[in-house]
Structures are given as C-alpha cells and as structure tokens.
Amino acid sequence: MEKKDITIVGKLGEDYNRPYVCKECGGIMIFKGVGEYECEECRYLAYDDYGKARNYIEKNPGATSGEISEKTGVSQKAIRQMLRESRLEIASDSKTFMKCGICGANIRHGTLCEKCAVSYHRNVEEQERAKRALAGYGMDFKKRDDGAMHFIKAEQNK
Ligand SMILES: [Zn+2]
Ligand SMILES: [Zn+2]
What we know:
By secondary structure, the protein is mainly alpha-helical. It has one domain (2-156). The protein is 51% helix and 10% strand. It is built from six helices and five strands, in the order H-E-E-E-H-H-H-E-E-H-H. Helix 1 packs parallel to helix 6 (137-156) and helix 2 crosses helix 3. The longest helix is centred in the C-terminal third of the chain and has 22 residues, at 114-135. It starts with a helix and ends with a helix. Residues 1-13 and 152-158 have low confidence and may be disordered. The protein binds zinc ion (2 copies). It comes from Kineothrix alysoides. This is Winged helix-turn-helix DNA-binding protein. Keywords: DNA-binding. GO terms for molecular function: DNA binding.
C-alpha cells in the first residue's frame, strides 16, 4: 500500500517535456503556470505538453485526442495521462469516454467513476484505521513524514 501511494505521487511530478532552456537566447525558462514558461532573459514564451494541449483545446473546443496529438505533437499517451490525472477533461458533448478502472463505467477524466472513487477512499481510510490499531501511533507518524517528503519533491519538479 505504501509503495502504491508513492507511485501515484510520483506521477504528479511528471514534467511533460517542460522547456528548460530558451530556444531564442539560451536563458533559463521560468514556470509561469498552467503549462506556460517564460525566458527570464528575453521573455520568450514556451509551453510544455500540457500547455500545448490546453492552448489547442481552448482554440478548438471538442477536439479529439487524435487531433490534438496530430496538431500539437503531444503524444496520445501523454494526453491519456493528463486525462487520468484530471488535468484535462473530455468535453461533455463528446462521444469519447474513458473507462472507470473498477466498474468500467464511462468517465470523462480521472481513473475512477464517482461511485468507485468514494468506495475506494472508504477502503483506504479503513486500511489506515486498521494500520493504526496494529502498529500504534508513533510508527504511523513516521510513515506520514516520509509521504510528505515525497510530495514536496514532486512539487519542486514542476
Ligand atoms: Zn530567451
Ligand atoms: Zn466505477
């Protein structure tokens, strides 16, 4: 269970081909937010895969993942990953769906439908309760500390 948690946190730190160096002048690219980066020297703007996909969708509402991939050069795998992370959502009038990982229901973002997400979290909470009953609070506190460190590391990668 601990290992699985770390895998999920790790995915948050994925940088989706973040630009590090300015194409124009070689300056350092600074994170501006929502997939956008700006050169600290010449103010040149560049985008990571998320920024590219997002810009394309804003200009072309209802675009399919195949179309986004073709026009922006972002891989369909990266687009699916962004959908799973709920960074992107399939438009409500689209006939395309993702599948809930537990019951197979149609969903538009994330990995689980709302029903399964609720029962999944109840399950995790129950396991946490059981762990506390077995291990006592001190040991549990140590594990939590570990988890927090991984999260901060993932945040810095953005
Ligand atoms: Zn520059
Ligand atoms: Zn489900």
